[in-house]
Specification:
Number of helices: 11
Strand content: 25-35%
Largest sheet: 11 strands, antiparallel
Oligomer: single chain
Strand order of the largest sheet: 1-7-6-5-4-10-11-12-13-8-9
Number of strands: 13
Amino acid sequence: MTLVDLSTPPAGPAPTSGLLDALPRRVALTLPELRCAADHAGGAPLPFDAVEPDAPADGPAGGLESRLGRSRGSAEAEARRTVMDALHPPATSLARRGLLVDGALEEGLAGAIGLLAVPDLALDLDVAVGTGGDGVRARAWHRMAGGAVATLATVDGVVFELAWFAADHWPAELARVAVLPEDHRATGSGVPAHVDLPYELADAAAEAVRSSRPDLLAVLAAQEGATVRGGDGTTYDATEVLDVLAGLSGEVQGRLRALVADTSGEQTTVVGVLSWVLLGDGWHALRTYRDRVGDEARVEVRRVEPADLGPLLAPVLAEVTR
């Protein structure tokens, strides 16, 4: 199987290829266009279950909403249906764009959809930024086989970006997934750039905040402060530990999760999971491990940038590609 190096982006196009040939190709497709293209690619399955969020108006939910008012979810579903109904017939719009000619799908597009359906390696990414009604959620599906990668991504479930490229462009494409929205503003964080603490302590602090008992954070900091250490092994006083616990449990503005699976065999096997959390100053990677000395479950929290996503995923992907 092809070995994928995600440590650094490629220096440039291969000598035998032109510049445009070496760059990733991208196509924006609506959900109906994507389904139509998949049908013309031999009925290739898509890497997600596209279920329309429709509910019968005269059902239980409709009855409640007639008395209590529409929920936010119902309003979004209605807006989605309105958008979908206004779209042109997918075969017509694909033909107009030159992606479907005489019933045949454009070769590159057909290959990308085929790769999405039958990969050797699958990487699913779920990114959420913001909270409540102002939050944004993006999902992306990356599939690799034979040194080629195809990706599918969406924010609203109506418009999708389909891209395909050589595997050496994968690091840059992964970094795009973790780039924060332009209107997101970083503030500051009480969490150091690199800190290590017991998993139970982090979990207890999060539970205290969820239970509206932030006063317990000071108690936890006083009792367990000695178990928290910096990346270089330094320790913190109770006040500094309180800032760490408050930041990890109260600053969260988003999260990123990546799931890697081996799909080369008859059965799909999950190989590993990577988790990031968005704090006041940006992304922080979470790595859980068991301390060999005390046989204790711990979590390492390290400040990262979008460009770090590829290198951090590389060891997990290597479990499949080696």
